[in-house]
Amino acid sequence: MRFSGFLSSAVMVILFVGCFMAVPEVVTAKHGGGVTRHYKFSIRMKNITRLCRSKSIVTINGKFPGPRVVAREGDRLVVKVVNHVPNNISIHWHGIRQLRSGWADGPAYITQCPIQTGQSYVYNFTITGQRGTLFWHAHFSWMRASVYGPLIILPRRNESYPFIKPYKEVPILFGEWFNADPEAVINQSLQTGAGPNVSDAYTLNGLPGPLYNCSGKDTYKLKVKPGKTYLLRLINAALNDELFFSIANHSVTVVEADASYVKPFVTDTLVIAPGQTTNVLLKTKSPAPDAAFYMLARPYFTGMGTFDNTTVAGILEYENPKNPENAPLFKPSLPAINATNVVANFSNMFKSLATNKFPINVPQKVDKRFFFTIGLGTNPCPKNQTCQGPNGTKFAASMNNISFALPTTALLQSYFFSKNGVFTADFPDFPLHPFNYTGTPPNNTHVINGTTKVEVLPFNASVEVIMQDTSILGAESHPLHLHGYNFYVVGQGFGNFNPKNDPSKFNLVDPVERNTVGVPSGGWVAIRFQADNPGVWLMHCHFDVHLSWGLRMAWIVLDGKLPNQKLPPPPSDLPKC
């Protein structure tokens, strides 16, 4: 009898995933209110055809997009990753706090060396205090172009959502498809200094849809019943593009962002940046209309470079239409590509639920303040080479003009075992050379590169970071992601941050809690978090092109005094460089 609760818990999760559970899951034992769930990820090449072109891509278990990982709050996940492809790889569990389990976070050369061909690594972590929609993806070079999938955290058993129980839950993943090998695309860009070739299509659950050549059969269709409430779990896994998304003739209610509940609000157009997730409730029409409805996504972009200016389409279909042959197919109208005001208004709608059951804990006082510029820059062209970046230079990207260089040994190992010479603890708290950040850019756009500088935080320090976009090589939005933490978005605005006037407008009552936030194009955003998770944590732009150009830095959060405030030693199978 003592196993009955354990079995029903396992059965409930398996019923939730139903036929789409693509990896074998073994539930082994109860522990501390949750269960341990084992998954196996085999990294293999797989021939896939899109846009009438076939190519071999890197996949997990031969699936594209990758398999769903489903668990409950409080569960422990044990995922064995075995690498059967020529590429090095690592897997990041995007948005998981990884409390005292930083060895399982996944970014290559930050918390681990990559998993080499023929090698394996077991990611072992407990989901603490989190429930909602996240995702996992490769965190090595541009491998996440095809290596990504949903990470769905259900509430604890006998716990309910703080909104109406949905009739059905549907993950929807946005991605990008390249006819070429994405690794070749970024390698060519880094060699020539030019911007990389853009993707050939966006995808919706791996399918480009009928607006692309030769893709009518590769269309995602969401079949719904009339008068039902559906929970759509939206995930932007695209490499380099923020997206507008809308369903024709339907509005949705936003209830969650980055696996944190928000005060519900209704919208007919969503904006979702790479690395962000958004849960929405879709109430279908009743009676069923004699029509079908496009679900469209296309980019939001304000920069100076090129981008994939195409539109991915899925179709919302009602069951048993009366006249399917002649039913009209309605199309939503999406904002202009550069509709920054739409993005700002949408971002300002997000507020934490902030109830007794789901409280927030935004730091009211700040121990450590930082001001980081976020933007592009250049590197000089090497001698005897012709470069194709701005004015014959190479494109670069930076935070506080530091273009972060990945080490050849993982930072976390270097820090934990006190190895010298891998990094320096002198990342600048403020810009070294202040300028009019959103005005006329300086003549010298060169970044400081070749350095691995980190910022060190005492355990449990309350931290405020102002992230300021710059106009160097064009103002644009940057989705900044912080590993190992959620943070509160306490303020945002356009122009240059004003340290005298802007803090008085900060929301310290119910700010949204996120793991990825868009730094507004030509503006700034303020975040706060409590440094209560010891380890080494990457913070970076979730546009992979900017990540490749160096728009990243790392925090070292020191151990606390108590045993449960210290990072344990690494597992024995931690990959070696």
List keywords for this structure.
EC 1.10.3.2; 3 domains; CuRO_3_LCC; Cu-oxidase_fam; repeat; Immunoglobulin-like; mainly beta; glycoprotein; disordered N terminus; 8% helix; 577 residues
Going by helix content, strand content and strand pairing, the class is: mainly beta
**The first-level CATH class name of the largest domain:** Mainly Beta
Which range does the strand content fall in? Answer: 35-45%
CATH architecture of the largest domain: Sandwich
Mean pLDDT: 94
Q: Overall 3D geometry? A: globular
Low-confidence stretches: 1-22
Please give the number of β-strands: 34
Strand order of the largest sheet: 11-10-13-18-15-16
Superfamily (CATH H level) name of the largest domain: Cupredoxins -  blue copper proteins
User: What would you report as the Rg, rounded to the nearest angstrom?
Assistant: 23 Å
Number of helices: 5
State the end-to-end distance.
48 Å
Number of domains: 3
Descriptive overview:
The chain is mainly beta and 577 residues long. It folds into three domains: 30-159, Sandwich (Immunoglobulin-like), CATH 2.60.40; 163-352, Sandwich (Immunoglobulin-like), CATH 2.60.40.420; 368-557, Sandwich (Immunoglobulin-like). It is built from five helices and 34 strands. Strands 11-10-13-18-15-16 form a six-stranded mixed sheet, with no helix packed on it. Strands 12, 14, 17, 19, 20 and 21 form a six-stranded mixed sheet that branches. A hairpin with a 2-residue loop joins β15 (252-257) and β16. The longest helix has 14 residues, at 4-17. The termini are far apart. Mean pLDDT is 94; it is low at 1-22. It is found in: Secreted, Extracellular space, Apoplast. Keywords: Apoplast, Copper, Glycoprotein, Lignin degradation, Metal-binding, Oxidoreductase, Repeat, Secreted, Signal.
